Fold each of these.
Amino acid sequence: MTEAKAFDRVADDYDRMRGGMERGRQAAAQLAGDLAPGPVLEVGVGTGIVAAGLAELGHDVRGVDVSPPMLARAAERLPGRVCVGDARALPFADASFDNVVFTHVLHLVGDMPRALRETARVLRPGGRLLAVHGDPAADPDELVAVLDRLAVLQPRRPDTPEDLDAAAREVGLERLRHEFAPDYERATTPRQLLESLERRLPPYLWDVDDDTWARVVEPALAALRALPDQDRPRVQQWRVHRSVYVRS
């Protein structure tokens, strides 16, 4: 299953299960202070929640994504400003943007160094790369405990701060700053998380085979089903890695 086809499959549920515009506005507010003046490209724009949040703040935003069904939803929020394209071969001319944004996308692009070369190509001198990347984390609770049980299914992420720094240096991007800080608050019920996992919405569940599902995932789902107050939201504050780079 390619990344594009997998996101095609979850497009109808993506906003509902990932926080929708509320989460997009939270992410945009965190990013906006690091943007340079000028146009912004969000790579992996998805349904457009972050890009639309930036547009609401007055930024000139374009978006690109590999999934047409995801883009159909983004186009409703950003009409005429999104297109199909691959992070590894961006459909834009050299030096087209003053900012490129990746929000929880770099681990999915298939070849992060190549994506960063394309980023450097489309950035103007002095332009900025803003990346939200790496493993997010929240304080322990009943739902986080279930997700921790599934962590063995997640491959090593290529977008660690160290790996991103190394790839950025190779293409002439200098890091301005990095932080691991609160990013968004989310209230999730056990029933909502159960539905998300049963529908295989997280990317690390897309290709899990039947034996592994029975051995690893089903016990986690059973633990979720056993929780009391299935419709009571558990409020979580998620922290993420945010890095800012400048093109020399």
Note: The mean pLDDT is 91.
Amino acid sequence: MENRADAARLALLRNQFDLTWALLEYHLDRLVEADVHWEPAPLCWAVRQDDDGRWVPDWADAEPDPVPVPTVAWLTWHVDWWWTTALRLLRGEEPPAREAVVWAGDGAAAVSRLRALRGEWAAALADGSPGALDAEAPFPWPPGSDRTGADTAAWVNAELMKNAAEIGQLRLLRAAGARPTAG
């Protein structure tokens, strides 16, 4: 049986997630296809179709300087990738290779995918127990990091909030008529 402190900790993580999701959902509900591929600057990370018709993200193993501005499509792919990885690791499953996670193909499909992941994560939090929150975190930290499942849940909330802000800012800039600057 969980004690009040454990229940409060789990409730805090769930409530924080619900708030974070609501902030993202505000923008997901308003996305149009033109928002998704809009490149606001000459240096952008996007998703592009490869020779096989798969939508693959721009990527660099070492972060470039300057960091490219991501498109909404790239951001939705990125959320799909890290969230799928987190969920699989928390379930004790093998995570997909980054290259195996391809973009959904259009904005509506990408939003649908994020909503499905939201459902999986909400279920994981609903099933959460103090033991799971205190177990060693399988992601995003390496083994032996002394991070816990609670740390992973808090990281997911923070990473999702960051991505929600980025998606929202890009959508608002495009809607306001921002133009890429000359490089």
Note: The mean pLDDT is 90.
Amino acid sequence: MRFHPAPPLSRALLGLMLLAGAAQAASSHPPMQKADPAAIAAGKEAPAPQPISDEVIGQEYDAYRASVKGQKMYTVSYILLADEKAARQWISKLKMGAPFGRTAREHSKHAPSAAHDGVLGPFATCRWSKDTIALLDSLKPGQIHGKPVKASAGWSIYRLDAVKPLEPISYAQYKEQLLSGTFRPECPWVPPVQVDVPQQ
């Protein structure tokens, strides 16, 4: 009996059958998992992280500068009291010379600031509500707001300690902080370019 080579279509079908068999065999095994670092052969190192380009950092820096444009930094001291009557009484005492820091330490219900003599610290405009910004803008540095402000946990007393325009950090500082993972924006902000910074 003489052998005749298979026509091209039959060869193609044979190839598909072989591929299908291989796929079926592969499907009977669990999917491959990410290799464990300990399983990497000795002498082979993981590829080094790629450096972040100055172009990408420049894009992020421009967006950071835009996020703080026109912002102010308010340094504020704060006392939180349980009721309005007590807050009014303490505002009068403070205006007559009672020490703000001691009053905050001994009477404020806001533990984080009470531990620092009532000082909340510097925060940008974007961190305050519109009503609080209006309140702070009505004060001069060192001045206590004349009325207690209703808060979710009681009544608040505000003193404006300082206010100044928010100056963005320099490009060099931004780059250093970004690459070291220590950058903390003054305003809640998501960079336009997500950068996976390798940690040392």
Note: The two ends are 73 Å apart (CA to CA).
